[in-house]
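Obj: model holo form, ligand = norvaline.
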Amino acid sequence: MTVKHFLRDDDLTPEQQAEVLALAAELKAAPFSRRPLEGPRGVGVIFEKNSTRTRFSFEMGIAQLGGHAVVVDGRSTQLGREETLQDTGRVLSRYVDAVVWRTFGQDRLEEMASGATVPIVNALSDEFHPCQVLADLQTLAERKGTLRGLKLTYLGDGANNMSHSLLLGGVTAGVDVTIASPEGFLPLPHVLEAARLRAKDTGATITVTTDPDAAVDGVDAIVTDTWTSMGQENDGLDRVGPFRPFQVNATLLARADPQAVVLHCLPAHRGEEITDDVIDGPQSVVWDEAENRLHAQKALLVWLLEQQQ
Ligand code: CP
Ligand code: NVA
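Output (holo structure tokens):
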């Protein structure tokens, strides 16, 4: 049997993503209505990078589904040592019904998935953060009623995990996605190619620009993220100067649609990528967005487990 993994946003077709988002809304309204992990069945949740939201939302979500989360710091396991990731995937599949993993290279997730007989879920890699974007889409759907045809602009590091996942996950939902980044920080070509392929199916548009002002004119949603992702702290690049014009502040926000909403996956670096008045202002939906991690991930787990039956 083929195992359904969620390693990147386009692992879900537009129809499958819509199913997960509908289930997320259902679970938000009735958090204890689904108990597929009753037993308890287990889910491994492994972190090789820091986390607040992902850790709490997965651990609580798994409990609410009736299961048990085995939450571990990857550094305390054999993961960083000599055992292959494929062998690890094979072994963990004998203990738990899914593995949620925050790691570095996307290749690591793919290698573990190649040995696993249970779903592997990407809880953030250097290239993608697909669980976050499910929560972002849920938040947008709540505020705007529909996703198809919405105009969303992401400002910041176009080559990071949030930019890539917003591109892939956004166009999958039929959202018109613009990425506005300084020169040298544009999305990776292979991700753009995959997004363009998916956009052909959904009719969404993709724009990549170095002009932050034009990028936000009249848009429905503005999204930003840290200029320095985990693991990039010492990469030798200037991750402040070139990014200043891309700061989400009141002047920039005023160019968007008056009903536009502002998202940030958090943690926020106030005064850098976003100002206090915007993140704490009436157009910010970041706290709902953070809450929706819980609902969207529960929905994802329920949906993935159903695929395995
Ligand atoms: N947004 C997000 O993934 O937050 P954490 O790093 O705190 O999990
Ligand atoms: N791009 C950020 C997201 C944090 C949730 C990082 O990878 O550090």
